[in-house]
Amino acid sequence: TKIFRISDIQGENVKRQESEIRQYNEHLKQMEESRKQLLTDISHELGTPMTSIQGYLRAMLDSIIEPNVNYLQMIYNKTILINQLVEDLFEISKLESNQTKMEFEDILVESLFSMFKNKFELEISDRGYLFAMDPLQGVPKSMLAVVSVDTVRIEQVMNNLISNAFKYTPQGGVIHFQCEVDAELSICTFKVNDSGPGIEEASLPNVFNRFYRGDKTKQKQAPGGTGLGLAIAHEIIKKHHGQMGVESKPGKGASFYFSLPIRLLNTR
Ligand code: ADP
């Protein structure tokens, strides 16, 4: 058996403290890096539409181009984008710094699922898509599954997933809802599947990153996004102690999902 001397133990403690300080410094450095990156991203994202507005206005003032409705519309669209960016940034920064007040309430998974159907089915078909929905899967007959959610926020997440399905899926496509409770009866997973172009494998890990906007060709098909929608949705799900993810194969549609912890009630 090894005999520990006081000096050994003190030495161990000092080493542990040093390693903790190193880890903490590393963490601070990473935070500083990500803060700098965020500022760079923000100035870039706001700067691009600003420069383009200035360019059009300067050219009109210098009589290089004639003011016409098309130019004015382009300028107007850029101001809308800037506005959206500022709003989204404000929202994500409030979420990340815990300044968003969440109003949690218990609701049956089944009720939440039919709430999504009631809220979105009509809009989906009005916009020229086919709506499909599977029955809730995985809840034993004698049980009721309950989730604790801020319904307004969860609806916002669904709204984001469905707006993306609209943006990226050509009309006539299918938007399909699923909800499943896992075998351990610990989480329920809500899925929004679309029949759009899908996402290439290399981009999948990036779609929840701030300002990520896929490839340039798709941006042309779906202009005007801020690349913050999914990052905001992800933050909201994290506030629910849930997880969010995506599965997709190019050409085979995208399937965005979020999982929330559940509690079970016995009905017997
Ligand atoms: P935005 O839609 O404003 O670009 P999001 O954060 O909502 O920002 O989405 C990030 C990126 O993820 C999009 O630019 C797009 O490339 C990709 N994406 C999101 N939803 C879908 C979808 N349903 N189908 C294909 N690509 C998608």
According to DSSP, the number of beta strands is 7
Number of helices: 6
Overall spatial form: flat
* Small molecules (ligands, ions, cofactors) in the structure: adenosine-5'-diphosphate
Strand content: 15-25%
Q: Structural class of the secondary elements?
A: alpha+beta
* Poorly predicted sequence stretches spanning 5 or more consecutive residues: none
Subunit organisation of the chains = single chain
Helix content: 40-55%
Q: Separation of termini?
A: 58 Å
- Average pLDDT score: 93
**Main sheet specs:** 7 strands, mixed
Elements, N to C (H/E): HHEHEEHEEHHEE
Domain Histidine kinase: 41-264
Keywords: ATP-binding, Coiled coil, Kinase, Nucleotide-binding, Phosphoprotein, Transferase, Two-component regulatory system
Coiled coil: 14-41
Organism: Paenibacillus foliorum
Description:
The chain is an alpha+beta fold and 268 residues long. Helices cover 51% and strands 19% of the residues. Strands 1, 2, 3, 4, 5, 6 and 7 form a 7-stranded mixed beta sheet that branches. The N and C termini lie far apart (58 Å). The structure holds adenosine-5'-diphosphate. Adenosine-5'-diphosphate is lined by residues 164-165, 167-168, 194, 196, 199, 207, 212-214, 218, 225-231, 254. Residues 164-165, 167-168, 194, 196, 199, 207, 212-214, 218, 225-231, 254 line the site of adenosine-5'-diphosphate. Keywords: ATP-binding, Coiled coil, Kinase, Nucleotide-binding, Phosphoprotein, Transferase, Two-component regulatory system. This is histidine kinase.
